Write a sequence for this structure.
Protein backbone atom coordinates (compact mmCIF):
# COMPACT_ATOMS: atom_id res chain seq x y z
CA UNK A 1 0.00 0.00 0.00
CA UNK A 2 1.23 3.52 -0.72
CA UNK A 3 2.63 5.12 2.36
CA UNK A 4 1.51 8.52 3.56
CA UNK A 5 5.15 9.22 4.60
CA UNK A 6 6.22 9.14 0.93
CA UNK A 7 3.80 11.99 0.22
CA UNK A 8 5.20 14.02 3.11
CA UNK A 9 8.83 13.52 1.87
CA UNK A 10 7.78 14.50 -1.64
CA UNK A 11 6.21 17.72 -0.35
CA UNK A 12 9.36 18.55 1.65
CA UNK A 13 11.64 18.02 -1.38
CA UNK A 14 9.35 20.11 -3.58
CA UNK A 15 9.42 22.92 -1.03
CA UNK A 16 13.22 22.81 -0.82
CA UNK A 17 13.55 22.97 -4.61
CA UNK A 18 11.26 26.00 -4.75
CA UNK A 19 13.26 27.78 -2.06
CA UNK A 20 16.55 27.09 -3.89
CA UNK A 21 15.18 28.47 -7.16
CA UNK A 22 14.02 31.62 -5.48
CA UNK A 23 17.43 32.06 -3.86
CA UNK A 24 19.28 31.95 -7.23
CA UNK A 25 16.86 34.32 -8.94
CA UNK A 26 17.16 36.90 -6.19
CA UNK A 27 20.87 36.60 -5.35
CA UNK A 28 21.65 40.09 -6.66
CA UNK A 29 18.91 41.69 -4.66
CA UNK A 30 19.91 39.82 -1.55
CA UNK A 31 23.36 41.30 -1.89
CA UNK A 32 21.90 44.78 -1.65
CA UNK A 33 19.24 44.14 0.98
CA UNK A 34 18.11 41.37 3.30
CA UNK A 35 14.51 40.13 2.73
CA UNK A 36 12.33 37.68 4.71
CA UNK A 37 12.07 34.12 3.34
CA UNK A 38 8.38 33.51 2.33
CA UNK A 39 6.41 30.82 4.14
CA UNK A 40 5.73 27.83 1.85
CA UNK A 41 2.33 26.17 2.13
CA UNK A 42 1.43 22.86 0.49
CA UNK A 43 -1.72 22.38 -1.54
CA UNK A 44 -1.10 18.64 -1.80
CA UNK A 45 -4.16 16.37 -1.84
CA UNK A 46 -5.13 14.48 1.31
CA UNK A 47 -4.27 10.81 0.84
CA UNK A 48 -5.40 8.07 3.24
CA UNK A 49 -5.95 4.34 3.36
CA UNK A 50 -9.35 2.65 3.43
CA UNK A 51 -11.43 -0.41 2.60
CA UNK A 52 -14.29 -1.19 0.26
CA UNK A 53 -17.68 -1.80 1.86
CA UNK A 54 -21.15 -2.49 0.46
CA UNK A 55 -24.00 -0.02 0.66
CA UNK A 56 -25.45 -1.93 3.61
CA UNK A 57 -24.95 -5.26 5.37
CA UNK A 58 -26.69 -7.21 8.12
CA UNK A 59 -25.61 -10.17 10.23
CA UNK A 60 -28.76 -12.15 11.04
CA UNK A 61 -29.38 -14.45 13.99
CA UNK A 62 -32.38 -16.22 15.54
CA UNK A 63 -34.08 -14.67 18.56
CA UNK A 64 -34.58 -18.01 20.28
CA UNK A 65 -32.77 -21.31 20.81
CA UNK A 66 -33.75 -24.29 18.66
CA UNK A 67 -32.91 -26.86 16.02
CA UNK A 68 -32.60 -25.86 12.37
CA UNK A 69 -35.40 -27.55 10.42
CA UNK A 70 -35.34 -25.75 7.07
CA UNK A 71 -32.80 -23.65 5.11
CA UNK A 72 -34.27 -21.73 2.17
CA UNK A 73 -31.22 -19.91 0.75
CA UNK A 74 -27.65 -20.52 -0.32
CA UNK A 75 -24.67 -18.21 -0.55
CA UNK A 76 -25.01 -15.99 -3.61
CA UNK A 77 -28.82 -15.94 -3.57
CA UNK A 78 -30.57 -12.61 -4.01
CA UNK A 79 -33.18 -11.91 -1.31
CA UNK A 80 -35.75 -9.24 -0.55
CA UNK A 81 -36.49 -7.63 2.80
CA UNK A 82 -39.03 -9.83 4.60
CA UNK A 83 -38.02 -13.08 2.87
CA UNK A 84 -37.82 -16.12 5.18
CA UNK A 85 -34.29 -17.52 4.98
CA UNK A 86 -34.43 -20.39 7.48
CA UNK A 87 -36.71 -21.95 10.10
CA UNK A 88 -36.36 -23.73 13.42
CA UNK A 89 -38.49 -26.71 14.47
CA UNK A 90 -41.26 -27.05 17.15
CA UNK A 91 -43.83 -25.11 15.10
CA UNK A 92 -46.72 -27.48 15.93
CA UNK A 93 -46.65 -26.83 19.67
CA UNK A 94 -46.51 -23.07 19.18
CA UNK A 95 -49.26 -23.12 16.55
CA UNK A 96 -51.44 -25.01 19.05
CA UNK A 97 -50.73 -22.31 21.61
CA UNK A 98 -51.74 -19.66 19.10
CA UNK A 99 -55.02 -21.48 18.38
CA UNK A 100 -55.78 -21.69 22.09
CA UNK A 101 -54.94 -18.03 22.63
CA UNK A 102 -57.15 -17.02 19.69
CA UNK A 103 -60.06 -19.03 21.10
CA UNK A 104 -59.67 -17.42 24.52
CA UNK A 105 -59.45 -13.94 23.01
CA UNK A 106 -62.66 -14.58 21.04
CA UNK A 107 -64.48 -15.78 24.17
CA UNK A 108 -63.18 -12.84 26.23
CA UNK A 109 -64.18 -10.33 23.56
CA UNK A 110 -67.64 -11.87 23.27
CA UNK A 111 -68.09 -11.64 27.05
CA UNK A 112 -67.07 -7.98 26.97
CA UNK A 113 -69.36 -7.27 24.02
CA UNK A 114 -72.22 -9.04 25.75
CA UNK A 115 -71.67 -6.97 28.86
CA UNK A 116 -71.87 -3.77 26.82
CA UNK A 117 -74.73 -4.98 24.63
CA UNK A 118 -76.83 -6.07 27.62
CA UNK A 119 -76.61 -2.77 29.44
CA UNK A 120 -80.09 -1.74 28.27
CA UNK A 121 -81.53 -5.03 29.49
CA UNK A 122 -79.77 -4.53 32.81
CA UNK A 123 -81.16 -1.01 33.09
CA UNK A 124 -84.66 -2.30 32.42
CA UNK A 125 -84.23 -4.94 35.12
CA UNK A 126 -82.94 -2.28 37.47
CA UNK A 127 -86.05 -0.18 36.88
CA UNK A 128 -88.22 -3.20 37.69
CA UNK A 129 -86.22 -3.83 40.84
CA UNK A 130 -86.76 -0.22 41.98
CA UNK A 131 -90.50 -0.47 41.31
CA UNK A 132 -90.78 -3.78 43.17
CA UNK A 133 -88.82 -2.49 46.16
CA UNK A 134 -90.89 0.68 46.23
CA UNK A 135 -94.10 -1.39 46.31
CA UNK A 136 -92.71 -3.47 49.17
CA UNK A 137 -91.97 -0.29 51.13
CA UNK A 138 -95.47 1.04 50.46
CA UNK A 139 -97.14 -2.22 51.55
CA UNK A 140 -95.03 -2.51 54.70
CA UNK A 141 -95.71 1.11 55.61
CA UNK A 142 -99.43 0.60 55.03
CA UNK A 143 -99.50 -2.41 57.37
CA UNK A 144 -97.61 -0.52 60.05
CA UNK A 145 -99.73 2.60 59.68
CA UNK A 146 -102.93 0.57 60.10
CA UNK A 147 -101.70 -1.38 63.07
CA UNK A 148 -103.12 -0.23 66.42
CA UNK A 149 -100.49 -0.42 69.12
CA UNK A 150 -101.94 -1.44 72.50
CA UNK A 151 -101.95 1.43 74.99
CA UNK A 152 -99.66 -0.50 77.33
CA UNK A 153 -96.98 -0.73 74.58
CA UNK A 154 -97.12 2.75 73.08
CA UNK A 155 -94.21 4.03 75.17
CA UNK A 156 -92.11 0.97 74.33
CA UNK A 157 -90.11 0.20 71.22
CA UNK A 158 -91.32 -2.78 69.22
CA UNK A 159 -88.47 -4.94 70.50
CA UNK A 160 -88.97 -3.87 74.14
CA UNK A 161 -92.66 -4.56 73.79
CA UNK A 162 -91.96 -8.12 72.62
CA UNK A 163 -89.56 -8.73 75.49
CA UNK A 164 -91.93 -7.27 78.13
CA UNK A 165 -95.07 -9.04 76.89
CA UNK A 166 -93.28 -12.35 76.48
CA UNK A 167 -92.02 -12.16 80.07
CA UNK A 168 -95.51 -11.46 81.38
CA UNK A 169 -96.97 -14.22 79.21
CA UNK A 170 -94.49 -16.75 80.60
CA UNK A 171 -95.28 -15.72 84.17
CA UNK A 172 -99.02 -16.16 83.63
CA UNK A 173 -98.51 -19.52 81.96
CA UNK A 174 -96.67 -20.72 85.03
CA UNK A 175 -99.39 -19.34 87.27
CA UNK A 176 -102.15 -20.97 85.23
CA UNK A 177 -100.44 -24.35 84.92
CA UNK A 178 -101.56 -25.77 88.31
CA UNK A 179 -105.21 -24.82 87.68
CA UNK A 180 -105.65 -25.63 84.00
CA UNK A 181 -107.38 -28.97 84.78
CA UNK A 182 -110.02 -27.43 87.02
CA UNK A 183 -113.57 -26.97 85.86
CA UNK A 184 -114.17 -24.13 83.44
CA UNK A 185 -116.78 -22.87 85.89
CA UNK A 186 -114.13 -22.37 88.59
CA UNK A 187 -113.89 -18.63 89.10
CA UNK A 188 -110.20 -18.58 90.07
CA UNK A 189 -109.26 -20.66 87.03
CA UNK A 190 -111.45 -18.47 84.84
CA UNK A 191 -109.78 -15.31 86.11
CA UNK A 192 -106.28 -16.71 85.47
CA UNK A 193 -107.31 -17.89 82.01
CA UNK A 194 -108.61 -14.44 81.10
CA UNK A 195 -105.35 -12.82 82.20
CA UNK A 196 -103.37 -15.43 80.22
CA UNK A 197 -105.44 -14.79 77.09
CA UNK A 198 -104.95 -11.05 77.42
CA UNK A 199 -101.19 -11.55 77.87
CA UNK A 200 -101.13 -13.75 74.76
CA UNK A 201 -103.00 -11.09 72.81
CA UNK A 202 -100.59 -8.39 73.95
CA UNK A 203 -97.62 -10.58 73.00
CA UNK A 204 -99.10 -11.33 69.57
CA UNK A 205 -99.61 -7.63 68.96
CA UNK A 206 -96.03 -6.84 69.98
CA UNK A 207 -94.69 -9.55 67.67
CA UNK A 208 -96.83 -8.35 64.77
CA UNK A 209 -95.68 -4.78 65.29
CA UNK A 210 -92.03 -5.89 65.31
CA UNK A 211 -92.61 -7.88 62.11
CA UNK A 212 -94.18 -4.87 60.40
CA UNK A 213 -91.33 -2.58 61.40
CA UNK A 214 -88.70 -5.17 60.36
CA UNK A 215 -90.43 -5.71 57.02
CA UNK A 216 -90.51 -1.97 56.43
CA UNK A 217 -86.81 -1.58 57.29
CA UNK A 218 -85.87 -4.44 54.96
CA UNK A 219 -88.02 -3.02 52.17
CA UNK A 220 -86.44 0.43 52.58
CA UNK A 221 -82.93 -1.09 52.45
CA UNK A 222 -83.85 -3.03 49.30
CA UNK A 223 -85.22 0.12 47.71
CA UNK A 224 -82.05 2.05 48.50
CA UNK A 225 -79.90 -0.69 46.93
CA UNK A 226 -82.14 -0.92 43.86
CA UNK A 227 -81.86 2.84 43.34
CA UNK A 228 -78.05 2.72 43.65
CA UNK A 229 -77.84 -0.18 41.19
CA UNK A 230 -80.01 1.73 38.72
CA UNK A 231 -77.92 4.88 39.05
CA UNK A 232 -74.69 2.89 38.59
CA UNK A 233 -75.98 1.48 35.31
CA UNK A 234 -76.61 4.93 33.86
CA UNK A 235 -72.88 5.35 33.17
CA UNK A 236 -72.47 1.87 31.68
CA UNK A 237 -72.02 -1.73 32.85
CA UNK A 238 -71.11 -2.60 36.40
CA UNK A 239 -67.58 -1.18 36.89
CA UNK A 240 -66.24 -4.32 38.56
CA UNK A 241 -67.67 -6.62 35.88
CA UNK A 242 -66.45 -4.31 33.13
CA UNK A 243 -62.94 -4.13 34.61
CA UNK A 244 -62.81 -7.92 34.91
CA UNK A 245 -63.99 -8.40 31.31
CA UNK A 246 -61.49 -5.86 29.98
CA UNK A 247 -58.68 -7.45 31.99
CA UNK A 248 -59.59 -10.83 30.51
CA UNK A 249 -59.42 -9.42 26.97
CA UNK A 250 -56.07 -7.76 27.70
CA UNK A 251 -54.61 -10.97 29.11
CA UNK A 252 -55.83 -12.92 26.06
CA UNK A 253 -54.30 -10.35 23.70
CA UNK A 254 -50.99 -10.52 25.55
CA UNK A 255 -51.01 -14.31 25.44
CA UNK A 256 -51.77 -14.34 21.71
CA UNK A 257 -49.07 -11.76 20.96
CA UNK A 258 -46.56 -13.79 22.95
CA UNK A 259 -47.46 -16.99 21.10
CA UNK A 260 -47.22 -15.27 17.70
CA UNK A 261 -43.88 -13.74 18.65
CA UNK A 262 -42.63 -17.19 19.62
CA UNK A 263 -43.68 -18.48 16.17
CA UNK A 264 -42.06 -15.51 14.43
CA UNK A 265 -38.86 -16.18 16.35
CA UNK A 266 -38.63 -19.59 14.66
CA UNK A 267 -38.05 -17.82 11.34
CA UNK A 268 -34.91 -16.02 10.18
CA UNK A 269 -36.09 -13.11 8.03
CA UNK A 270 -34.10 -10.85 5.70
CA UNK A 271 -33.94 -7.31 7.05
CA UNK A 272 -32.67 -5.72 3.81
CA UNK A 273 -32.58 -6.39 0.07
CA UNK A 274 -29.28 -7.93 -0.94
CA UNK A 275 -27.08 -10.95 -1.55
CA UNK A 276 -26.50 -13.83 0.85
CA UNK A 277 -22.73 -13.64 1.30
CA UNK A 278 -22.41 -16.12 4.17
CA UNK A 279 -24.63 -18.97 5.34
CA UNK A 280 -23.40 -21.06 8.27
CA UNK A 281 -26.50 -23.15 9.05
CA UNK A 282 -26.89 -26.93 8.76
CA UNK A 283 -30.14 -28.92 8.97
CA UNK A 284 -30.48 -30.38 12.47
CA UNK A 285 -28.00 -27.93 13.95
CA UNK A 286 -28.72 -26.59 17.43
CA UNK A 287 -28.48 -22.81 17.50
CA UNK A 288 -28.67 -20.34 20.34
CA UNK A 289 -30.27 -16.92 20.32
CA UNK A 290 -27.93 -14.25 18.96
CA UNK A 291 -25.62 -16.70 17.20
CA UNK A 292 -24.56 -15.34 13.78
CA UNK A 293 -26.28 -17.41 11.10
CA UNK A 294 -26.52 -15.54 7.78
CA UNK A 295 -24.91 -12.36 6.44
CA UNK A 296 -26.62 -10.27 3.74
CA UNK A 297 -24.96 -7.43 1.85
CA UNK A 298 -26.41 -4.86 -0.55
CA UNK A 299 -23.90 -4.42 -3.39
CA UNK A 300 -26.13 -2.10 -5.42
CA UNK A 301 -23.63 0.59 -4.46
CA UNK A 302 -20.04 0.32 -3.24
CA UNK A 303 -18.28 2.65 -0.85
CA UNK A 304 -14.73 3.28 0.24
CA UNK A 305 -14.52 3.87 3.96
CA UNK A 306 -11.60 5.27 5.93
CA UNK A 307 -11.12 6.03 9.59
CA UNK A 308 -7.67 7.56 9.07
CA UNK A 309 -8.56 11.23 8.56
CA UNK A 310 -6.65 13.22 11.16
CA UNK A 311 -7.96 16.42 12.66
CA UNK A 312 -5.51 18.32 10.39
CA UNK A 313 -6.82 16.54 7.29
CA UNK A 314 -10.54 16.39 8.02
CA UNK A 315 -10.87 20.18 7.75
CA UNK A 316 -9.73 19.90 4.12
CA UNK A 317 -12.49 17.40 3.28
CA UNK A 318 -16.15 18.14 2.67
CA UNK A 319 -19.29 16.26 1.69
CA UNK A 320 -19.66 16.19 -2.11
CA UNK A 321 -15.91 16.54 -2.70
CA UNK A 322 -14.42 14.60 -5.63
CA UNK A 323 -12.28 11.60 -4.67
CA UNK A 324 -10.03 9.17 -6.53
CA UNK A 325 -9.96 5.60 -5.21
CA UNK A 326 -7.18 3.19 -6.15
CA UNK A 327 -7.60 -0.47 -5.17
CA UNK A 328 -4.29 -2.02 -4.03
CA UNK A 329 -5.18 -5.28 -5.77
CA UNK A 330 -5.81 -3.50 -9.11
CA UNK A 331 -2.90 -1.15 -9.71
CA UNK A 332 -4.20 -0.20 -13.15
CA UNK A 333 -7.61 0.92 -11.86
CA UNK A 334 -8.57 4.33 -10.54
CA UNK A 335 -12.20 4.98 -9.66
CA UNK A 336 -14.01 8.29 -9.22
CA UNK A 337 -16.02 8.85 -6.08
CA UNK A 338 -17.78 11.47 -4.02
CA UNK A 339 -17.60 12.10 -0.28
CA UNK A 340 -20.97 10.92 1.05
CA UNK A 341 -20.53 11.33 4.79
CA UNK A 342 -18.03 12.51 7.38
CA UNK A 343 -18.52 11.44 10.97
CA UNK A 344 -19.01 14.04 13.68
CA UNK A 345 -17.59 11.72 16.34
CA UNK A 346 -13.84 11.31 16.69
CA UNK A 347 -11.70 8.32 17.59
CA UNK A 348 -8.25 8.21 19.11
CA UNK A 349 -5.86 5.98 17.17
CA UNK A 350 -2.18 5.65 18.07
CA UNK A 351 -2.28 9.06 19.71
CA UNK A 352 -4.00 10.80 16.76
CA UNK A 353 -7.52 12.18 16.70
CA UNK A 354 -9.17 10.66 13.62
CA UNK A 355 -12.51 10.80 11.83
CA UNK A 356 -14.34 8.38 9.53
CA UNK A 357 -15.37 9.29 5.99
CA UNK A 358 -17.54 7.32 3.58
CA UNK A 359 -17.05 7.74 -0.17
CA UNK A 360 -19.61 6.66 -2.75
CA UNK A 361 -17.97 5.12 -5.84
CA UNK A 362 -19.42 6.58 -9.04
CA UNK A 363 -18.36 3.45 -10.94
CA UNK A 364 -17.91 -0.20 -9.98
CA UNK A 365 -15.40 -2.67 -11.38
CA UNK A 366 -16.74 -6.26 -11.29
CA UNK A 367 -13.44 -7.41 -9.79
CA UNK A 368 -13.92 -5.34 -6.65
CA UNK A 369 -14.64 -7.24 -3.43
CA UNK A 370 -15.88 -6.28 0.01
CA UNK A 371 -12.94 -5.54 2.28
CA UNK A 372 -10.34 -4.78 -0.39
CA UNK A 373 -7.79 -2.15 0.68
CA UNK A 374 -7.65 1.09 -1.27
CA UNK A 375 -5.80 4.39 -1.41
CA UNK A 376 -8.19 7.32 -1.19
CA UNK A 377 -7.13 10.69 -2.60
CA UNK A 378 -9.29 13.68 -1.75
CA UNK A 379 -8.82 15.96 -4.74
CA UNK A 380 -8.56 19.72 -4.18
Amino acid sequence: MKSRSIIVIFVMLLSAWMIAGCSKANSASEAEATTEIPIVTSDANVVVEGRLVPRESETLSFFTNGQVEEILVEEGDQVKKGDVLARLGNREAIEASIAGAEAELLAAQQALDSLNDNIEVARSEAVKAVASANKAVRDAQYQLDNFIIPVSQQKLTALDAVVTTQKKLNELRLAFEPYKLLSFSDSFRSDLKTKLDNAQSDYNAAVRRLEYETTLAEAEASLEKAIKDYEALQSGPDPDLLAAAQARVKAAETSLASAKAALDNLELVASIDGTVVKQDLIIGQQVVAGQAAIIIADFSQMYAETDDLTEIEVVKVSVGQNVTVGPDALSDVELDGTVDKISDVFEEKRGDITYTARILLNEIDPRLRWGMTVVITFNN
